[in-house]
Structures
1.
Amino acid sequence: MWRYFTSRLLQIPIVLLIISLMIFVLVYVAGDPVAMMLPAEATQKEIQTLRIALGFDQPFYIQFWNYITDLVRGDFGESYKYGVSAIGLVLERLPATLELATASMIMAIIIAVPLGIISALKPNGIIDLFATGLSALGKAIPNFWLGIMLILVFAVNLKMMPVSGTGSWKHIILPAITLGTAVSAEITRLVRSNMLEILQQDFIRTARSKGQKKSVIIFRHAFRNSLVPVITITILQMASLVGGSLITEMIFSWPGLGQLIIQAVYDKDLPIIQAAVFVTAVMILLLNLATDVLYRFLDPRIKYS
């Protein structure tokens, strides 16, 4: 097992190098950011002076080599717009994104797991039909539309929740619901299908014949054996929440990575784009590695080679 995890850890720098190359190439071909950094009345001499100062006059391979050497030292340069360390700005915004992603995932699990279990225990019943219908609806509704509707209903009309920003626990409720609805729908469907399959297994019938309590059969035998695929999708969805909360953060003016990345793309702020994508990629890779660790913890029968 340790050999497997060591090989996985050694793969991370290679993957990050490939991701860094892709980011650099995409930003490189997008055009010269100097034009966005200077006012419209800037002279050609001023533009060329800034290009030389930033190293944009050098060939592609030299620019990429300088980028990689700085990357190894953890230096992504300074933001073209804000004039501060790009990685420092990204790490400053990261906790807000993690807070929103965690709140969304907790909300999704609290709703999805009980709903999926109850649906599996009483298939084709009223609760099951409600849960499956709600799951289909949750997957179909676009996040941006749901966020706007929640603002109109609960913030503008009912005035129960703040419209946007941060400051209290109420500020995170609507963004968490917006971001967690699709995740909750996915987890509900997965818990239901896995529980339905597990409940038909021979060891469940054996447990029932021994007279074990219904709660023991459901949670210790059925639910625990269905956890591996549920954990897989949960962690993958957590990674998608961290990296895919851009629109939700913009709608609710949540001061996380989403707003920062969108503004950086608009301004062609290369250091911030590279730092934000790099940090997000590191978190996703670590979450995938954590999935493998949890697999072995939950099911010792799983072997790694």
2.
Amino acid sequence: MPVLRLPKFGQPVKYAYITGRVRAMKTKLIPHEMYQRMLGMDIPEITRYLEETQYKEEIDLMAKDHSGAELVEYATFANLAKTYKKLLRVSIDEPEFLILEYLRRWDIWNIKTILRGKFYGASDEEIMKYLVPAGELDLEFLEGLAKKERIEEVVQAFDGTDYYEALTQYDGEMLSSVENALDKLYYFRMERAVGGTLSVGGGLLLKYVRKEIDVKNLVTLFRMNKAGIEAAVIQDNLLAGGKLHEEFSRMAGQSYNEFVRGLEGYPFWGAISDVVAEGGSVSRIEARLRAYLVRYAWALSNYHPLSILPVLGYIVSKETEVSNIRKIVRGKEAGLSAELIEEQVVA
């Protein structure tokens, strides 16, 4: 696995073609109102609907070996990986570089998934169900990791890469420190990559990345402050690079009520204020913040339509679509009410 590559600065940045492709791909996203209708369907009905969309190829292919919610999960992740790989194929130079750096989050996702699977004794097949080869690590390499017997073997497979130092933090007892180190590595790399571009769009992408870091830190504060975890532990789990990092660090360890009062007036407050006032779950708050991020990504893209930003908006929307579909079918498989599932859906 190569280290950070630099795009060919100085050459014309070719965004017209890829942004045109993205506009066409955006029209195939599932309309928001369809999620409400899916809540009233059973899993076979949802599957039949998805066969009428861009997921048809994956569903038809995987229906030979899978059914029910498992079929939908396999098919949506496979389609997500295919879609993101398509974006990489149709981009060159700076666009390709920035897309790949952003999609490395799926490398992190896959590494975490494999580590968790090994930690809890899951089978190779169960681990593979949740892998999304949409980043730089290809399916063959990931399958090899999934087949390893122990976590230590997975760690050694990354010797000589950027991931190795983070992975060596595994102490044999908990994965949280490793997962936090991987997240910090991803955002460090992302900030470094975006900060090295010369385009205005690159600067706006950095603005989005910092907003995303703030949202992730905010969710961490909601979870940990609500659980009464001490400030030092929370601060160690906050990601660096966000615009609000210092302010959020001061909120770590506050009583939940004090913490919530301190959030009033922030730009994101309008997206979550009603849920917080109702005493809603952190997962509901997280869904609202995710929707806020999707809107923010598309709002940024309006500033520079011939830049990386419309591509970012599509990437974020596609990931959200797949997440919503999976939440709905998982909830139905678990027998949850439509109201409870709806709380988790990002709309």
